[in-house]
């Protein structure tokens, strides 16, 4: 079973994160080892702090208006191994060890399983 490892961030690093008008910042989650992008979700200042302090990903649900820790219901937990903010401070990147079946609520391993193009999507294989 993976281990939670807290990440210590300085006050200056936390202050460098720029939240949008709703107090949120996009957080991209990438799998350690494979580099596969697993998901994108929103964080506010509290969920960012919780994620760093606990070593697990915490997000803000815009639809439910509540915090959620990835995997508490599904068992598909994410253990943070590295955490970054981009050059503008307006996007976060978490490198995680993914536990369970994957990151997507649909049952797919990654949320990014649908490609653009004529060979993809619900009508793939159609001659129309």
Question: Please, could you describe this protein's structure?
Answer:
- With 128 residues, the chain is an alpha+beta fold.
- It has a domain at 11-98: Ubiquitin-like (UB roll) (Roll), CATH 3.10.20.
- Helix content is 12%, strand content 29%.
- The chain has helices at residues 11-15, 45-54, and strands at residues 25-31, 37-43, 58-61, 66-69, 78-85, 92-98.
- The strands form 2 sheets. Strands 2-1-6-5 form a 4-stranded mixed beta sheet, covered by helices on one side. It has a two-stranded antiparallel sheet with strand order 3-4.
- The longest helix is centred in the middle third of the chain and has 10 residues, at 45-54.
- The radius of gyration is 16 Å and the shape is globular.
- The protein starts with 10 loop residues before the first helix and ends in a 30-residue tail after the last strand.
- Residues 123-128 have low confidence and may be disordered.
Describe the strand arrangement of the main beta sheet, using strand numbers: 2-1-6-5
Q: What is the general shape? A: globular
Beta content:
25-35%
In CATH, the homologous superfamily of the domain at 11-98 goes by the name Phosphoribosyl-AMP cyclohydrolase
Please give the largest β-sheet: 4 strands, mixed
**CATH structural class of the domain at 11-98:** Alpha Beta
Tell me roughly what share of residues is in helical segments: 10-25%
């Amino acid at each position: 079973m993976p281990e939670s490892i807290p990440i210590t961030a300085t006050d200056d690093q936390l202050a460098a994160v720029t939240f949008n008008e709703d107090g949120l910042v996009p957080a991209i989650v990438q799998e350690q080892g494979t580099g596969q992008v697993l998901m994108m979700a929103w964080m506010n200042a509290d969920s960012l702090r919780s994620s760093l302090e606990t070593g697990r990903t915490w997000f803000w649900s815009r639809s439910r208006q509540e915090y959620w820790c990835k995997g508490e219901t599904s068992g598909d937990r994410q253990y943070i191994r590295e955490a970054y903010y981009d050059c503008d401070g307006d996007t976060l990147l978490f490198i995680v060890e993914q536990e369970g079946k994957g990151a997507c609520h649909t049952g797919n391993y990654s949320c990014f399983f649908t490609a653009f193009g004529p060979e993809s999507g619900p009508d793939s294989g159609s001659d129309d």
